Predict the 3D structure of the following.
Amino acid sequence: MNKIHILIVDDHAMIRQGLKLNIEEESDMHIIGEASNGQEAIDFVKAHQDIDIILMDITMPIMNGLEALKTIETLETPPSCLILSMHDNEEFITKSLANGAKGYLLKDGSSEELIKAIRVVHAGNRYYSTKVSQILAEQYLKTLTGEGNPKENLDKNKSPLSKRETEILKMIDNGLNNKEVSMHLKLSIRTVEVHRFNMMKKLKAKNVLELLKKARNNGLLMP
């Protein structure tokens, strides 16, 4: 029997170990390797041609899962990627799928669902957990009805955000937290927090999710 070769990508060693123990109880599955961040995942995939499935977390240091996924998808024969994340909001889900993910699971799901998802994705299909499916369905209905897409009353000829704010906004959209943004841009965490606060004030957003949604609705981010 040909086993499904799986790469686990998560920055928490205990989570990787737990996943490995659960998955290797299955006779048709084998953990071929582990990575603790997106860059390690890319390097591993480039060095190994026999990976079938990548279990990818999103929020990780050095390089997050969304960035890694986007790069891996440009390779000649990329493995299928199944996102395994704690993030259950629309922005992360749609960004993951846009970057090439074949499925999306939440970390609070069962081991049985994880095993099922791996087999479904390996068979060439897509798999979404129940909550993720509901979010995608709601998004689709909003698209049909035109809800959630009103243009804000912003000057269409000039972005309300500065060049630096736009740069930080794109990083937030890619899943980076304040610490990761500060490391990338060589800024203090406090400076990043101030930029983030100013962006929310300019776009009249109450939280980061609303900030990203309003930015996308106004063409400040790619849909």
